[in-house]
Amino acid sequence: MKRIGTTVAAALSMAALTMAAGARAGPASVAPTPPMGWNSWNHFAAKIDDATVRAQADAMVASGMRDAGYRYINIDDTWEGARDAAGVIHPNAKFPDMKALADYVHSKGLKLGIYSSPGPKTCAGYEGSMGHEAQDAKTYAEWGIDYLKYDLCSLGPSMIASGSLEKAQAIELEAYKKMDAALRATGRPIVYSLCQYGVAQVWRWGGSVGGNLWRTTGDITDRFSRMATIGFGQAGLSKFAKPGRWNDPDMLEVGNGGMNAVEYRTHMSLWALLAAPLLAGNDLTKMTPETLAILTNREVIAIDQDPAGRQGDRVTAEGPLEVWAKPLSGGAKAVGLFNLSDQPSYVEVDFAQVGLKGPVKTRDIWGAKDLGRLKAYRALVPAHGVMLLRLGG
Ligand code: GAL
């Protein structure tokens, strides 16, 4: 139920381009920089409830994450209960009072996000929004919801059943546009996050159906190989991102325990270079100082949140050694020297390769050290590690 067939997916893009052409543009104002926050899925999955969400909000403030820029507390799948006789959705017993929860989260200076599907059922088999889009958007707005992740899930089979790629894509675009219109009709600013696993070149049309961000990939897991496949697989997508319209390579796994600190710094650095949404996916109430330091490094966050809103991209790849760069406002650049191999290795970059001529101020971000004015850099990078530099500016 969870995925549309790959054959269908592979060939949808051309139809998507044509059919999205007349769609309305969405407001960039709700996500001028990539959204930052937390999402329940990666750590808690179905074991999420009101008390846990409140505890995460408390911890986001107490840990200093809010002050570092994290804002959204996003409830993922499994909050949904039944519809009443009038068709109004109610949360299940795990969430006794969604409005009270939103009030609580807002009282902490944070925002609340929720999750649904354009299909009849969500990916975990709970109630979806099909046929109730306007009603659900109104309910979310009444509760005080600030962010909606809208996950394709059970719309996939009806797309396939339509019998043609064009019809399947029309169904998908219509469904996403319908919820966009419903959210706007509420008058409440709500970030609209599309989740359809990156098929059919969603980066080309996600904005035209109102998406502020769109998942560009299948699900991340807390393993270096999966994180790297997703993260380094974003090469070539930078031109599709801009303020209000972000590529989303899925949520962070930092602190969940499946990678070491070197690997989590690689994950965080790459997401920052990608101008990716920074949605922590760990238990914020149980963070080691190391996890917190990775998630709240101000200079890394500043790269992600740079006001120019430019996504970074790959500059060179030499076997498992990759250099990525992100243009920053004021002509500066963030550059990542990555070593994907299992051995320590030298990685180098001539700054002319990232468009900088002459010596420029060079800073080692994780080392928090100025390295002087340089024209090139060669670093011994640990296995699975990164040297993250800020050049100029
Ligand atoms: C997946 C989605 C995940 C999570 C899950 C919930 O399709 O990619 O991020 O939302 O559904 O059931």
What does this structure look like?
The chain has 393 residues and is an alpha/beta fold. It has an 8-stranded parallel β-sheet with strand order 9-8-7-6-5-2-1-10. The chain has a 6-stranded antiparallel β-sheet with strand order 11-12-13-18-15-16, covered by helices on one side. The N terminus is likely disordered. The protein contains 14 helices and 18 strands. The site of beta-D-galactopyranose has 10 residues, from loops.
Task: Briefly say what this structure is.
By secondary structure, the chain is of the alpha/beta class. Helix content is 31%, strand content 22%.
What is the count of helical runs? 14
Seen as an oligomer or otherwise, the chain set is: single chain
Q: How many E strands?
A: 18
Helix content: 25-40%
Strand order of the largest sheet: 9-8-7-6-5-2-1-10
Derived from helix and strand composition plus strand pairing, the structural class reads: alpha/beta
Separation of termini?
A: 49 Å
How much strand?
15-25%
In the predicted model, the low-confidence regions spanning at least 5 consecutive residues are: 1-27
Mean pLDDT: 94
**Main sheet summary:** 8 strands, parallel
**Over all CA atoms, what is the radius of gyration?**
21 Å
Query: What is the general shape?
Result: globular
User: What ligand species are in this complex?
Assistant: beta-D-galactopyranose
